[in-house]
What we know:
The chain is an alpha/beta fold and 136 residues long. 46% of the residues lie in helices and 16% in strands. It has a 5-stranded mixed sheet, with helices on both faces. The termini are far apart.
Amino acid sequence: MERIPILKMGPYLLVTIQIDLYDRLALNLENDLISMVSKTEARGVLIDISAVSIVDSFMGRILGNIASMSRIMDAETVVVGMQPAVAITLVELGLTLQGVHTALNVERGMELLQSMIVLHGRSSEDEEEEPDDRTE
Length: 136
């Protein structure tokens, strides 16, 4: 069965969708991604859709679901690389993509994820430091 690769980069998961998704593949991506957020304790999910030429209402709902489930699991979601035709289609379909943050490209998306994590007080440096319970 075909799968979309999910890469871990520090506290983030990166997904680059290189093909137009059919329904079963989109559902597999949703399940795989949420499982990876849980398994890796990722703080952010970046989904690059720059190669996607068609986003229908089902795919829009999948992106919204991923963002909602990730947020419940303490991770932010950013979608990057949306083509103008895709944005127009989403607006015409009336899809607002609740909870999905967007950025123009991967670089800006990573900056947005980093700023959201710092804003919510969840930096990767905090995870590396062990709490010191000793009193002096």
